[in-house]
Amino acid sequence: MRRATLPPELLEQATAPYRPLGNFAWRFARGKLGVDPAFAGLLQRGLLPARARILDIGCGQGLLAALLGSLDGRSAAERHWPADWAAAPAHCQVHGIELMPLDVARARQALTHLGERARFTQGDMCRTDFGQADTVVILDVLHYVSYQAQEDVLRRVKAALTPGGTLLLRVGDASAGLPFKISNWVDAAVTFVRGHRLSRLYCRTLRDWQALLGDLGFTVQAIPMHQGTPFANILLVARLTPPPTA
Ligand SMILES: C[S@@+](CC[C@H](N)C(=O)[O-])C[C@H]1O[C@@H](n2cnc3c(N)ncnc32)[C@H](O)[C@@H]1O
Question: Cα–Cα distance between 26 and 49 in angstroms, integer?
Answer without folding.
Answer: 27
